[in-house]
Amino acid sequence: MGHLFRQTDKGSTVWSTGNAPFRAITKIGSWPVTVAVRCRIEHFELDYFALLDTGAEWSVIGEDVLTHIKDQLGPPIRSLTISTRLGTIFGELHRVSITLLTDPGQGNELTLESTTFVSEEWDGPVVLGYRGFLERMRFAIDPGVIPGEQIFYFGLAE
Length: 158
Prior knowledge:
By secondary structure, the protein is mainly β. The protein is globular and about 45 Å long.
């Protein structure tokens, strides 16, 4: 497995603990997605390809995932409305466990407790957003030299 390093006053340290290929310029269902990474939501055994969106304020889960994890969710943190390109959507923020998955031999999966917007009104793909998820980790995207070589690197922020 390749590692990524960061420079500190004491030399360089490895920060990436896992990596996985990602899908670039693809579709999740009927939704066009620029960067799709593989993840697992809560303890549900189905893997999802999620839209990695550094411009999204929150990670978002819709009804298709909610039906499988509803009994695992704790009480909501708060209710709110978000504005999307599809219009205004009502939902609640919840603490949700999201695991970024690796291929065999590519390091360790990374599980984070994420603050996630959960809405039965959302019919788009799972979205991995900045606030409450991406801000809690280090990550890098290597677009590769040729199609099929795209790699998503990730590790805990320290």
